[in-house]
Amino acid sequence: MDLDAKKILKTLNPRKVWVPVGLGLGIVAYLFWSDPTITADKLTLVFDAAWMPVALASIVFFARFAGYIFRIKSITKNELSWTSSLYVIILWEFASAVTPSVVGGTAVAVFILWKEGIKPGKALGFVLLTAIFDNLFFVLAAPITLFLGMDMVFPQSGADANALESSMDMLFFVSYSLISIYTFVMAFALLINPRLFKWVLIKITSTRLLKKWRYAAYERGTEMILASEQLKGMGKRFWLYLSLSTLFIWSSRYLLLNFLMASFTSISFLEHITIFGKQIILWVVMLISPTPGSSGTAEYFFPIFFNENLGDYTLIVNLLWRLFTYYPYLLLGAIFLPRWVKRVFFVPKEKVVSQ
């Protein structure tokens, strides 16, 4: 894995925040232009919000953030301090926000952990493991969602629905299949038989058509073996903490939208479950988005899924949802990145002398 500092810091360049911001605002502008029922007056509906659900949304926002910090600290066996864990999560989320969802920020996350004192092999193991468990949440939760209410979790296609809206179920199943295959292949490679994974990669790239990628395949296979070795001997508590914290993190993320929607409209218990399920379906679709942090994609698909629940409040909740779940990480990353660079690259002379 290429851990070149210049390339990593180029990915983390704060100037990149304007790309996803522009995409998001562009889609919002398109929604204004394409739907005559959406007017600037709709923005004043924000004052209709009930304060208690908004307060609960704020609480689960911070709870999710705390869950991320706890998870990375616990799986590294407390090798990271609370301060280091905070920096890691903020910059990791920032990297995810400025890179396409389908690409992710694996190399960036490994680099950040490495600069915080975690050995590269171990850092790669931790990053891949959290990615596998995050994806596994969707792989397991999506079928449950479909079983409980398949007719309700997909958008209802009306006569005026475009081709994309009408094929939402097909888009979901394609995305779900790709994510499932990727997750199980990575889980097998990391946790079961990394040497077989390396052998398969080398065999695949032995063909004339793929030969130029053979060395890269060899490197990826070697890295997987090294990462897998770092996870051997982890006790039951390790896996329990990882599983429960992952469940807590994603449940908190989804409950946030439930609370935001409840602040504008009355929602029954069954509707809360349906909304939770819709988010899982939406998120699986967003995971293959080619845009940074699914910017633009999220704003476009939100009304397709939730307009029937929110009506006139769809636009304002769409904006609030992204303000809670996406834009804070762009802002925090831009603020904390310079401090982190100074912290890990420019060691004070007195520290060097003391060492």
Helix and strand topology:
Blueprint: H1 5-11, H2 18-34, H3 51-75, H4 82-98, H5 106-115, H6 120-153, H7 163-166, H8 168-192, H9 194-204, H10 214-230, H11 236-262, H12 269-286, H13 297-310, H14 314-325, H15 327-345, H16 349-354
Quick description:
It is built from 16 helices and no strands.
Q: Would you write up a description of this structure?
A:
It is a single chain. The chain has one domain (5-354). The longest helix is centred in the middle third of the chain and has 34 residues, at 120-153. The chain has helices at residues 5-11, 18-34, 51-75, 82-98, 106-115, 120-153, 163-166, 168-192, 194-204, 214-230, 236-262, 269-286, 297-310, 314-325, 327-345, 349-354. Helix 6 crosses helix 11. It has 355 residues and is mainly α.
User: What is the SS-derived class?
Assistant: mainly alpha
**What is the gyration radius calculated from CA atoms?**
22 Å
The ordered string of helix (H) and strand (E) elements is: HHHHHHHHHHHHHHHH
List segments where confidence is low: pLDDT < 50 over at least 5 consecutive residues: 349-355
Classify the oligomer: single chain
Count of discrete structural domains? 1
- The count of strands amounts to 0
- The helix content is over 70%
State the helix count. Answer: 16
Largest sheet: none
Roughly what is the average pLDDT, rounded to an integer? 85
Features:
single chain; 355 residues; mainly alpha; 16 helices; 0% strand; globular; disordered C terminus
